Amino acid sequence: MVRFPASCNVFMDEFGRIAHFFAPLASGFSGSLNLRDDAALLAPSAGHELVITKDALSEGVHFLGSESAGLIASKALRTNLSDLAAKGAKPLVYFLALMLPPGTGDAWLEAFCAGLENDQKIFGISLAGGDTISTHGKLSISITAIGEVPLGSMLKRSGAQAGDAIYVSGTLGDSALGLRSLQNGLGMAALEERYLLPQPRTALGLHLRTLAHACMDVSDGLVQDLGHICAASGVGALVHTPNIPLSPEAATQPGALTAALSGGDDYELLFTSPASAHAALEALSAEVGVRISRIGEVVSGSGVRVLDASGDEVKLTSTGYVHR
Amino acid sequence: MVRFPASCNVFMDEFGRIAHFFAPLASGFSGSLNLRDDAALLAPSAGHELVITKDALSEGVHFLGSESAGLIASKALRTNLSDLAAKGAKPLVYFLALMLPPGTGDAWLEAFCAGLENDQKIFGISLAGGDTISTHGKLSISITAIGEVPLGSMLKRSGAQAGDAIYVSGTLGDSALGLRSLQNGLGMAALEERYLLPQPRTALGLHLRTLAHACMDVSDGLVQDLGHICAASGVGALVHTPNIPLSPEAATQPGALTAALSGGDDYELLFTSPASAHAALEALSAEVGVRISRIGEVVSGSGVRVLDASGDEVKLTSTGYVHR
Q1: Which residue of chain A has the CA closest to B37?
Q2: Least crowded by CB within 10 Å, which of A130, A182, B200, B257?
Q3: Which of A293, A103, A266 is nearest to A178 (CA)?
């Protein structure tokens, strides 16, 4: 492969860029037709159906713009992979629309595609098609990611039942605290990485198909997203703050609980399971190497209530979560 | 439905907008889960496979920005529908990523969605999911459109054979001349409409599955796109300028032939068929009400040669197509 030094702003034409940068990312999937046709061909495996999600990101809104091209590519792909993970879907292919500001050179594009290539190997997904266009504005990226599940087995937001326990993977709040660190030059590297490079819980999601009643990924903040599960399922939820999983780095930070409850960009899995699944979930946590914490329970009614160690309700205000 | 006067810049939050504007567009497709989950569910009909295309458009590059919101929506959807038509695919569903500049009000969004709703009825397609985000820049739209074909029957760019006749639907060059009219205030309404509102040849494409060896839609200009068919098929092509179909409005304009050969944005179907298909194509043209013109023939070798009425070759220069 021809390599351009990073300082060299070389431009290929559209067809040259597709053949040079993007076609290699599609070579593992025959239905891509090597990106040489107007469309891609895809069918799910026998007895399966497709799970399809589409997320868009724009510079200065969903990422800072100062990240390396490879990190931007990874974040764009991984936010979509997190949606597939939350639905229990095995990743198959993705379609990429890249809206490039004027002056985007081939060196940037090469680094962007290297980020995609690395993640394709990690998550077992292949590029299948897309479009690269110019825009008068900031960089935007839209990805449509497609996975598959056995017929009828997709994890949904609906399905939570009163009496279910509520679980969350990993730790919460790191990403919001990481963004704060990046914006204020605090140098909290471990937290910053959680913002810059989401970790889709793909393996965990696949196993949850038989263990969870409802599932989604935490992207808008725990309380808001749990509210979506409650609304879709026609139930309420209690969350106990002492059980919220915080990383060691986050636990020492001011505002950690607020970040964990409403910070967003966590890309952890939030799910409800019957009590009978608890032992299996403990074994699964060990098997996939991802912490799973029981943070509350599904109750009849509606809405999310957050309780502290004393059982008193805390509420979100403009300064964070406080006693009511 | 609540209606906002066009002058009223009302803003709902993201979830309000999804429920109010977009969920009704997804109500005809159960796999959309009413846009209330993280992903959509889709499986092709028995014996079919999916055809998937993704096109993006950005203001000031792919549309002017002065069009009505409804026309912008139609153009975004229809350029994708044209790709499906060129592959012989029956439209099923689409996913929409909408990157909105600051200050985009609900009235604009309502008109945009009305344009989508109208085209959904015409082309038999339904919204299945997507994302609406803010961007620091111009309006951009990315659509992923999905159709289906009987297994193995998708029309491809490859497949053209020496001896095939080359056909094109409709008339060429109108869109490029229409853009010129819009940019220069020439008031050529019929031509301008061809630029503003593409006409995907969906019904024609479905029938071509059994009649064409190779097919694509003309979006970058006849000569360039025919070159893609030649490259994919390992053949060459001769095009005869007297056979290029021009509309009455285009025929009177300076530069009409150049616009027809290289203008782009035509969204007509370009295909090759064996001589044995000619009578069936004439009948098909009458059945679907779309002109079909035989413009040349596939030859062995490579590349596209354009010949005038005398059989002399004409070449594209900076001032248009001229004798060599």
Answers
A1: A157
A2: A182
A3: A266
Single-letter code of the amino acid located at B89: A
Of the candidates A43, A99, A142, which has its C-beta nearest B50's C-beta? A43
Examine the pLDDT at B4 and tell me if it is beyond 70: no
Chain B residue whose CA is closest to A101: B137
The whole-number pLDDT of residue B3 equals 31
DSSP B171-213: -SSHHHHHHHHHHHT---HHHHHHHHS----HHHHHHHTTT-S
B43 touches chain A (CB under 8 A): yes
Q: What pLDDT does residue A294 have? A: 98
**Which residues of chain A does B57 touch, with a Cβ-Cβ cutoff of 8 Å?**
133
The 10 Å Cβ neighbour count of residue A230 is 23
Chain A closest CA to B278's CA: distance in Å? 25
The token pair at B255 is 């530069």
> Which 93-112 residues of chain B touch chain A by CB within 8 A?
95-99, 101
**Phi, psi for residue B125 in degrees, rounded to 5:** -125, 155
Instruction: Please state the pTM of the whole predicted model.
Output: 0.93
Amino acid found at A266: D
DSSP A233: H
Residue B304 backbone dihedrals phi, psi, to 5 degrees: -110, 125
For the stretch B75-113, pLDDT in tens is 999 999 999 999 999 999 999 999 999 889 999 999 999
Spatial contact of A8 and A105, defined as CB atoms under 8 Å apart:
yes
Residue A98's closest chain B neighbor by CA?
B56
To test the contact with chain A by mutation, choose from B38, B42, B270 the residue with the greatest count of A C-beta atoms within 10 A, namely B38
Residue B182 CA to residue B246 CA, distance in Å, equals 19
Strand residue runs (E) in chain A: 40-42, 48-58, 90-100, 126-134, 140-150, 165-169, 214-217, 236-240, 269-273, 292-299, 303-307, 313-317, 320-323
Residue B140's pLDDT is 94
pLDDT along chain A (324 residues), means of 10: 35 83 96 95 97 94 92 97 98 96 92 98 97 90 97 97 98 97 96 97 98 97 96 98 98 95 95 97 98 98 96 82 64
The reported pLDDT for the residue numbered A150 is 98
Q: DSSP string spanning A169-211? A: ES-SSHHHHHHHHHHHT---HHHHHHHHS----HHHHHHHTTT
Give the pair of three-digit tokens for residue B47. 């014996």
**What are the structure tokens assigned to B213, written together?**
């060896």
